[in-house]
Amino acid sequence: DSARESALHTLDVWNTQLAEVGASLLYARLRLLRDLGPFLQAAYAAVSSGSTPVTATYRASLREAAATAIAAGEVPEPEVLRSELLAAFDEHRAAEIERGVTLVGPHRDEVHLALGPMPAKGYASHCESWSLALGLKLAAYQLLRRDLGEDPVLILDDVFAELDTQRRERLAELVAECEQVLVTAAVGADVPERLRTTGRTYAVSLGEVTRVE
């Protein structure tokens, strides 16, 4: 009908805008993932006390050659990414029109995390999953500290309850050097003693905050 034809006439304009903004976003994501990688490996190994390699692979919704290169760790320049997005839009144009959705772009991409040869999703144990999550958080902290030249605030929101005793102690040792750490816990005993005795402790009950000596 006429409304559909009118909308299709503007599709190239929307694709051009999506490619421009999407290329910038994709470039920033790929650079972040590349820079985060070494910190993630070190942080996970420290928390888990293991040697299992951790990989974070970006799965881009681009044409096969470009997606494969990105999955291997390449970070193409924004203009190259823009061209690849436009080419992918053309390749999927008929399918997008038929389904009424955009099949290509940063909103369709994913990051796959793996421990050794196995994907973390569906295969990692509970403690491994939490160690990986903490590894990502600590890696982001280390990357920010490197880029900012100063210590950001590290927030650990009720994480100790999900870890076994050994992982709790290793995490406490890792964050002890941080300038400012905010730790929350439903059960105070879940927090390792070295953190409870070196900082300030507050109890929150019925909306009231009191200092615990």
Describe the fold and architecture.
- Helix 2 crosses helix 4 (78-91).
- A hairpin with a 2-residue loop joins strand 2 and strand 3 (118-119).
- This protein has 213 residues and is α+β, with helices and mostly antiparallel strands.
- The longest helix has 38 residues, at 11-48.
- The model has no long low-confidence stretch (mean pLDDT 91).
- The chain has 8 helices and 7 strands, in the order H-H-E-H-H-H-E-E-H-E-H-E-H-E-E.
- The protein has a 3-stranded antiparallel β-sheet. Strands 4-5 form a two-stranded parallel sheet.
Question: What's the helix and strand layout?
Answer:
Blueprint: H1 2-9, H2 11-48, E1 54-59, H3 64-71, H4 78-91, H5 93-99, E2 110-115, E3 118-119, H6 126-148, E4 154-157, H7 165-175, E5 181-184, H8 193-198, E6 201-205, E7 208-212
Helix pairs in contact: 2-4, 2-6
Descriptors:
213 residues, alpha+beta, two-stranded parallel sheet, 54% helix, elongated
